[in-house]
TrEMBL record:
Residue spans crossing the bilayer: none
Protein name per the record: ATP-grasp domain-containing protein
Keyword Membrane attached: no
Keyword Nucleotide-binding: yes
Keyword terms: ATP-binding, Ligase, Nucleotide-binding
Domain named ATP-grasp: residues: 128-318
Short name of one Pfam family: LAL_C2
Superkingdom classification of source: Bacteria
InterPro entries recorded: ATP-dep_AA_Ligase, ATP-grasp, LAL_C2
Length: 419
């Protein structure tokens, strides 16, 4: 017991969210921490605890905490550390917990990102401004307080435009408008009150870059190709990695992203950076100081043999030698989200066979007969996904496409849209 009490501890600020993807991410991270002999504690919102039993069962303890209040998270963590001194790692995979986690790490003297850097990347217009001033190409963006300011921004710039929240992810509240008459509908989609952004729509293929920090420096694991539904919404319905890019383009993407992360002074954990390849070069999109969604963590685990990305972060924070010397893709992965017709679900056919395929690395089905399927406007409305691993990205894309096509959603008309 004495040896266990001296074991390093990892605090998972925010614990797991209610979505299956969030639970799976935290479960993988917990397993990799426990395999290293670490004590694991979840700092979870009380509302999430009843819905995240799989993660809770893997942790040594769970503490009900309003983690989005940074002061509350810091106070609890400092008091806990005073009662139980030992080496600690502070980690989160959740967007709302990034700021509080950075402040907890700072208060404990643990490895972490500077809170000011996290604040910058979480504020989309602030990050745009910072990167533009640092010499990176960015979409033109205007911060607007109301419809009148948004209309003025549209009159002074070239469309089409993207209306989006200032803070957030998952494409929630994000839509494209081509004329001022489309603006009221776009504003109705915004979550809550407060300032919002009117941004230049970028013409180009969209990608993301996934990686982790080792000894304070960014290390790219893969460039991911995105598959999206057509505008006016921007819901991702698939990913492929590593993206089949020419070597010189991939190198330029990697260099641009690592330079941007260094400029932002991010230095800890995982990263997910979005970008477009345009006729005029690379345009950086949003920067996230966290892992990507879309079961990319499962695909990376297959594509990079020997990779334990969360464990690598924990080892690095504790000054331990890395568990794998080479972290690069030698295999591939692909995911697809189902895009069934809207209506009331009667049955799902072929799911058991498709999800049981030996190449499947992640399978999610979030709807049951009787529930209403709606046209997607953001990622939380997606009803399920399959992700596979293969030797090449072409094989992975062909396989996941055939598996998704083999699943049939039987629906009937529904009278109204589900909230």
């Amino acid at each position: 017991m004495k040896q266990q009490e001296k074991a390093p501890e990892v605090l998972f600020v925010g614990g797991a969210g209610k979505a299956p993807l969030s639970i799976d991410v935290v479960a993988m991270a917990l397993e990799q921490a426990r395999s290293r002999g670490m004590v694991t504690r979840l700092l979870s919102h009380p509302d999430d605890i009843p819905h995240t039993q799989r993660a809770i069962d893997l942790a040594d303890s769970v503490h009900a905490l309003e983690f989005t209040d940074a002061a509350t998270a810091v106070a609890w963590s400092v008091e806990h550390a005073a009662d139980d001194p030992r080496p600690r790692v502070v980690f989160t995979g959740r967007e709302p917990a990034l700021g509080p986690a950075a402040r907890v790490a700072e208060a404990l003297g643990a490895a972490g990102n500077p809170p000011s850097s996290v604040d910058t990347v979480m504020n989309k217009d602030a990050c745009r401004t910072f990167l533009a001033r640092a010499g990176f190409r960015q979409p033109a963006v205007r911060l607007c307080q109301n419809r009148q300011e948004a209309e003025q921004a549209m009159l002074e710039t070239r469309g089409p435009w993207v209306v989006k929240p200032r803070v957030g992810g998952g494409s929630l509240g994000v839509s494209m408008v081509s004329h001022t008459r489309d603006l009221p509908g776009a504003l109705d989609l915004l979550p809550g009150e407060g300032p919002f952004l009117v941004e230049e729509f970028v013409e180009g293929e969209e990608y993301s870059v996934e990686g982790l920090f080792l000894e304070g420096s960014p290390h790219v694991l893969a460039v991911t190709a995105k598959h999206k539904l057509p505008p006016p919404y921007f819901v991702e319905v698939g990913h492929s990695l590593p993206a089949p890019l020419p070597e010189h383009v991939g190198r330029c993407v990697t260099d641009t992203v690592t330079d941007a992360l260094k400029a932002l002074k991010l230095q800890f954990g995982l990263f997910h950076v979005e970008l477009w390849l345009t006729a005029d070069g690379i345009v950086l999109g949003e920067v996230h100081a966290r892992l990507a969604g879309g079961y990319i963590h499962r695909m990376l685990a297959h594509a990079v043999p020997g990779l334990e990305m969360f464990g690598a972060v924990f080892d690095d924070a504790l000054g331990r030698p890395p568990t794998a010397a080479a972290l690069s893709c030698t295999r591939a992965g692909a995911s697809r989200f189902f895009t069934p017709p809207a209506g009331r679900l009667v049955a799902v056919e072929g799911w058991e066979e498709a999800s049981a395929h030996p190449a499947v690395v992640a399978a999610e089905l979030r709807v049951a007969p009787g529930e209403v399927i709606v046209p997607y406007r953001h990622s939380e409305e997606r009803v399920g996904a399959l992700a596979v691993g293969a030797d090449t990205v072409q094989e992975a894309e062909e396989l996941v496409g055939s598996l998704v096509d083999s699943v049939r959603f039987v629906v009937e008309p529904a009278a109204e849209r589900a909230s």
